[in-house]
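>> received
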Amino acid sequence: MRTDADMPDMPEVEILDTTLRDGAQGEGIAFSVQDKLAVVRALDDLGAAWIEAGNPGSNPKDREFFPLAAKLRLNHARLCAFGSTRKRGLAPGDDPQVKSLLEAGTEGVAFFGKSWDLHVREVLRADLEENLDMIRETAAFLKAEGRVVIFDAEHFFDGLAANAGYALKAVLAAREAGADRIVLCDTNGGAFPDLVARGVTEVARVLGGSGGPRDGGRSAGGGDGSGGAPGGEARKPPPPLIGIHAHNDAGFATAGTVLAVKAGCRHVQGTLVGFGERCGNTSLAEVIPSISLKLGLPCLPGGRLEHICEITRRVAEIANVAVPDNMPYVGAHAFSHKAGMHADGILKVSRSFEHIDPALVGNDRRFLMSEVGGRSAIAERVRKIEPSVTKDHPVTAALAAKLKTLEAAGWQFEGADGSFELLVRRELGRYRPLFKILAYRVVSEHPSGDEIACSHGWVKVLVDGKDEIAAAEGDGPVNALDGALRRALTRFYPELEQVRLSDYKVRVIDGTAATAAKVRVLIESTDGPNAWTTVGVSADIIDASRAALVDSIEYKLIGDIERKFKAYL
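>> returned
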């Protein structure tokens, strides 16, 4: 087992990610054992110091996971198992749940104990002193077994507000037993950030400082702090590292965590994407950049911060959730600019409308194409294809006019980068259609009884003077049309086998026209590493979908052709 002293390159603030434990308690989140292993690899790639990997005492899947995880070669992270104090009336060594924490074989063990007297009396139904003994004895037992011990003071801030003396006694009980980290938990997620900051300051005063990631050596004596000093004098163990674990039920998790760090915390817990029990945990993808870039306290090994955007999306994909578009730092909208004045300012001085350089977190600046975007934003996008174009170029003026006309007719390009790029290519004269749909048909069947409804798509395409006919069955008309179209084109473009639709949205443009209204269809497609969005508009939802599908396929094919050409050069 490694100790803290064996980890000389730990950053100033250590990160514990609990995606696989607290995150797995979020509604709609379920990890297989293989999913959990994939998340561990991703978090290790990011550079998390600790990965709280599950509760072996309550979950058979976690008991299966830990032996497999022990075989992983991790470069940065250490694993810890999670559980609770010993049960009432049992010694730690006789408690099956406590013993399961050791059997997990992890370098660290995190356990929670009550620090709010209400919970001790009304939930645990224990005596206040007995609860302190449970904390003290569990920490001492795990420490004696050579583990890095992380004590989570559950409901600490509620306890501090209700009975500060007792909440601090719970913290001191863990400290006396040699706990390496004492984590203050806003378990209900309702503590105001200023209360969090005051609580951290008070705990630091009581413990004698916040310690640091490298002061992991403990006294050689027992949990009472005696022994190990010359002449038999009692010597207290060095101060443990103070941590923060916040939930987001009142929207305070990020602010509370950052203020906790400013007040002295050097151990931060959360989940990378922010999901977890109820409204979720502190989103580490939000707080890590703020702590690193704005407080100047490194949280990850050198150079790993620029990977946080990509790894956040990787973990979200494993969990089968989407990274919220408006998520700070890593969301698709985090560095998106729509207003013409904003785009013009960004292009002159980036910090005029951006609080950091998006490249620092691996994100991209995006200029949204709309009638309010302005010519500077349009020119910036066009320059990715033709570097000579300026905001005063005729192509820029023509595109600005065309955007206004198309958006008046219901088109919208701010969320459809793929379709806008094709529009630019047409205006530049750099567009050649790679295929043509000669005809298509979609039929939906709705059998009576218990039979499942299905749709059939048929399409005839022309590519380089050769036609191809294909049909497909789908769960709906768009799925059937998509399957038939890609089946017909795969003969000519086998790379389309890797493409799939990842999202499909329909918006009625003018509700007053009832069933005759135009609809706008947005389709997000992916080939694995890349994702892009295209748009179609029509009074016929199938035709609007057809337009978006055609754009999606052409965008993919043109991009592949250009990448191959550049590689050839």
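>> The first strand starts at residue 14 and ends at 17.
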